[in-house]
Amino acid sequence: MEIIELSHPYNDEEIIHEPIVLALGFFDGVHLGHQAVIRAAKEEAVKRGIKLAVMTFNQHPKIVYSKLDEKSMFYLSTNERKADLLTGLGVDILYLVDYTWAFGSQAPQTFVDRYIVDLNAKVVVAGFDYTYGKKDVANMQTLSKHASERFEIVEVDQFSINQHKIASTNIREQIENGQIEVANKELGYLYQTSGTVVHGEKRGSALLGYPTANVETTSKELLPGIGVYIVEFFVSEKWHQGMASVGYNVTFGENRPVTCEVFILDFDQMIYGENVKVRWHHYLRGEIKFDGLDGLIKQLDQDLVDTREYFAELNQ
Questions:
Q1: Phi and psi (nearest 5°) for 299?
Q2: For each of the chain's 316 residues, which pLDDT tens digit applies?
Q3: What are the DSSP calls for 74-89, one per residue?
Q4: Which of 89, 181, 254, 305 to pair with 83, CA 20 to 30 A apart?
């Protein structure tokens, strides 16, 4: 997949000068609803024998309009992760637009002219709730007027599971609440975060017999809520089984920062400084404050048993 970063106003030399099907949306998480849009667009592209392009933004529009601090905005997928997911869905071109006040302040007609027609879109595919300006004047119902018959429009209906709308906002809430399996179902894949292994307090190895990789998560990715999880851990081009603790380590004191520590099953390599990934399978339990090390070790032993049983059943 070719990735083209655009800043407003862009130069014509930057874009692809050939007919495309263009899918529109922010696509945070590329969940099942987003996948329905991409698949509908792919069908149109295959039918016409042209490339499929997606146009999305490098940051959430809320950061511009609500003056939201960028550090407080967490995503289900970084731009790199989003690109990987879109590649897997058969997207040929990704237009990643720098969402600024100037870009967002365009008149709806100007947006359609420059970011749809001038991108050589022959078909535009988007979800039923897509907007390209103020929602009362720039939505899927007004798009045909602004299109002036210069391209076809495919509107994809709401995607629901048991009458529950699949939405990035809902999935973020589920992940924050530890409902990782619910979130995975609505994503259509296992939720994944990335980061770097950094030095921690080394308490897991020295005192507990459970050495952990302390993962400093990519700042813009949403970390699951406080608790202990069954995970897979990717390092050195291989996935390993593991269990992760997201929490404050309350047994060892108050007012501690949140950390993400992963005990990797049957693993004894030194991996400090490595870039890693974590796939989140299952919520095991909440964080518990123990009176001493014996209680914590006993619980970790049980967590390990539960983790091994989980993967044994998964692989049956």
A1: -65, -40
A2: 999 999 999 999 999 999 999 999 999 999 999 999 999 999 999 999 999 999 999 999 888 887 666 656 899 999 999 999 999 999 999 999 999 999 999 999 999 999 999 999 999 999 999 999 988 999 999 999 999 999 999 999 988 887 788 999 999 999 999 999 999 999 999 999 999 999 876 554 445 678 999 999 877 899 999 999 999 999 999 999 999 999 886 555 566 678 999 999 999 999 999 999 999 999 999 988 887 788 889 999 999 999 999 999 998 8
A3: -BSS-HHHHHHHHHHT
A4: 181
Domain boundaries of the chain, sorted by first residue:
2-165, 190-314
Model confidence, pTM:
0.91
Count of helices and strands (H, E) across the chain:
10, 14
- Tokens encoding 308: 């091994």
Backbone angles phi, psi at 145, to 5 degrees: -65, -45
Cα–Cα distances (Å) from 192 to 69, 187, 230, 314, in that order, read 24, 11, 12, 18
C-alpha R_g of the chain: 22
**Domain at 2-165, CATH from 3.20.20.70, 3.40.50.620, 1.10.10.60, 3.40.1110.10:** 3.40.50.620
